[in-house]
Design a protein that fits this description.
alpha/beta; FAD/NAD(P)-binding domain; Polyamine Oxidase, Chain A, domain 2; 2 domains; 10 helices; 28% strand; binds flavin-adenine dinucleotide
């Protein structure tokens, strides 16, 4: 592959990538391998976005994505490489299911399983591994406020007053946040095609509460430590100990989109109590004795409600600015990864 001409760059970087979730890291890795100088800006203290793992005392809890599947070849080869580096491992092929959070858990007989993967030390293991492969560290704790275009260059302003100028930009944050970033930088109609703007502005996400519970004893959840729930306030329960990521017993309880929306602004303690009550039958003993610590994560942008039926959206060509992430294609880890790759390939085509 011919090396790109970095000497034409109006700034220090060829490409700026906003967000270091799986989409941003896949895009950056691809573009760096193609020879571009890439700045990755991430507002959080660490990488991974919704592939998130939290430590509570000794417990390790995944509180965003719980597992991922691999269907496509490009993501498959990244996963194989990550497995060789001990960053990811297969978890199981199928999860038991239950009509309500009260159980009983039954094996779904109507389904053929396929490999569900997890991070070796929690879901952040994969994004952390991908970030470690980049020649320059991701700039964490850097919140992008606006993105505009001027003199065929992309101008990015950050909350810490840092300014990045580049030849192209890849935006991977949840789309409503990207729309705000564009708006603040003047990248809106008539500069942006109104149809593209309307499409971006219409992307919505459902929220999700994830409650992490540290337990005194192992839970009663069956192997392999994940349960899909069909109705009621809870959508999913995971035992992080059985899953193999936590050295001590801990549960992650994920609420449904409906419950999360209805209780989004409720008192967090009430939300926690309702979710604990819903899953009490999987806790071995009185919840007041068994639950030793708890932590509630409130995801505002958890799942795209109706993902855009395109792998990415080009916002403009000169300079190239593209939006990607899980809102483009599927609302899952693999769709976000594929979307990041599609955006990177598009940028490469335009810059070369
Ligand atoms: C509770 C929950 C459970 C889930 N379960 C599963 C599952 O089991 N399997 C599965 O496949 N998927 C699951 N998902 C979905 C999956 O996590 C996502 O599809 C995927 O991780 C999205 O990756 P992304 O890179 O598109 O976005 P993100 O991971 O959201 O990354 C975007 C990044 O942009 C950063 N950012 C945002 N704004 C700015 C800014 N202004 N400046 C700089 N950085 C910014 C964010 O901090 C974030 O790191 C789940 C999601 C949630 C919330």
């Amino acid at each position: 592959m011919a090396a790109p001409k970095t000497d034409q760059s109006p700034g220090e970087y060829d490409i700026v990538v906003v967000g270091a979730g799986i989409a941003g890291l896949m895009a950056s890795g691809y573009l760096i391998k193609a020879g571009y100088r890439v700045a990755v800006l991430e507002k959080a203290r660490g990488v991974g976005g919704r592939m998130a793992t939290r430590r509570i005392g000794e417990a390790v809890c995944d509180h965003g994505a719980q597992y991922f599947s691999v269907k496509g070849r490009a993501f498959g080869s990244v996963v194989s490489e990550s497995q060789e580096a001990s960053a990811v491992v297969p978890w199981c092929d199928l999860f038991p299911r239950s009509e309500t959070a009260e159980g009983p858990a039954v094996e779904p007989l109507d389904e053929v399983g396929h490999a569900r993967w997890r991070g070796a030390r929690g879901m952040t293991s994969l994004p952390k591994y991908l970030a470690e492969q980049l020649p320059e560290p991701v700039k964490t704790g850097v919140r992008v406020c606006s993105l505009g275009v001027q003199d065929n260059a992309v101008h990015v302003t950050c909350e810490n007053d840092e300014m990045v100028v580049a030849r192209a930009a890849v935006l991977t944050a949840p789309v409503p946040q990207v729309v705000e970033i564009f708006y603040s930088g003047g990248l809106r109609p008539p500069v942006v095609d109104p149809q593209v703007w309307d499409m971006l502005s219409s992307v919505e996400y459902s929220p999700c509460f994830s409650l992490m519970l540290c337990l005194a004893k192992p839970s009663l959840l069956p192997d392999p430590g994940g349960l899909e729930v069909c109705s009621g306030p809870v959508a999913w329960i995971a035992d992080n100990y059985k899953k193999g990521i936590s050295p001590v017993p801990s549960l992650t309880v994920q609420a449904t989109a409906e419950f999360s929306r209805d209780h989004f602004n409720a008192d967090p303690k009430q939300v926690e109590d309702k979710l604990i009550e819903a899953v009490h039958c999987w806790i071995d003993g009185e919840t007041s004795d068994e639950v030793q610590a708890r932590s509630l994560q409130r995801w505002k942008y958890a799942f795209p409600v109706s993902p855009v039926k395109a792998p990415m959206i080009a916002v403009q060509n000169k300079p190239p600015v593209v939006c990607c992430g899980d809102a483009f294609g599927g609302g899952r880890v693999e769709s976000a990864a594929s979307s990041g790759l599609a955006a990177a390939r598009w940028i490469q085509r335009l810059l070369s």
